[in-house]
Amino acid sequence: MGRKWNNIKEKKASKDANTSRLYSKFALEIYVVAKQGEADPELNQALKFVIERAKTYNVPRVIIDRAIDKAKGGSDENYSELRYEGFGPSGSMIIVDALTNNVNRTASNVRAAFGKNGGNMGVSGSVSYMFDATAVIGIEGKNSEEVLELLMEADVDVRDIIEEEEAVIVYAEPDQFHAVQEAFKNAGITEFTVAELTMLAQNDVTLAEDAQAQFEKLIDALEDLEDVQRIYHNVDLGE
């Protein structure tokens, strides 16, 4: 599963931070999750997860609190969660998750981004069957053997444990996300380099230089859409 997780995460975080897109996307996600359930993260596991994830991207606490306060204020904004699937250059596969208050606008914008950048939309299920929903949790300060021992003592099953640069990355079933985090927290580890529920491709593909350039242009176009929250793909972008 060596996806160079931290490299991918850092590139995206750096790019998003420069345009403030990252903060806006997290603010919306936190607002929606808080509005759908309790506004207290201790009573709303979904909200707690989003906040934990936001912390790994260094989202300021003031933005998190503002989004929660907005949900508490009884705003009547309603958002739908949507997933689009499609193909990029050379058969690359892409999954796009969105939050929107205008389904028609979002569908049109996502379709246009694919169409103008060498891709095309697929039907539901045309791509996702080649991806696995996965919990990804990363820490620093321990090696893979120490992490394995820690998780075994906590009776937590995981798929894989990999050392990537200075971090240890744990890959687990989605329903084990909180169990892995709790095992770390009980061992005194409270800072995470990554804490995600994501979609990992079963097999990565490497594109020729021209196809990769077009693929990256397509991803940029999708990321620029305000309704798009997350993008998953099967392309190995290298270092």
From TrEMBL:
Keywords: Cytoplasm, DNA-binding, Transcription, Transcription regulation. Gene3D superfamilies: 1.10.10.200, 3.30.70.980. Its main location: cytoplasm. InterPro entries: Integrase-like_N, TACO1_YebC-like_2nd/3rd_dom, TACO1_YebC_N, Transcrip_reg_TACO1-like, Transcrip_reg_TACO1-like_dom3, Transcrip_reg_TACO1_YeeN, YebC-like. It comes from the Bacteria. One of its GO terms (molecular function) is DNA binding. The keyword Disulfide bond does not apply. PANTHER family: TRANSLATIONAL ACTIVATOR OF CYTOCHROME C OXIDASE 1. NCBIfam families: PRK00110.1 (NF001030), PRK12378.1 (NF009044), YebC/PmpR family DNA-binding transcriptional regulator (TIGR01033). This is Probable transcriptional regulatory protein SM124_22680. It comes from Robertmurraya mangrovi.
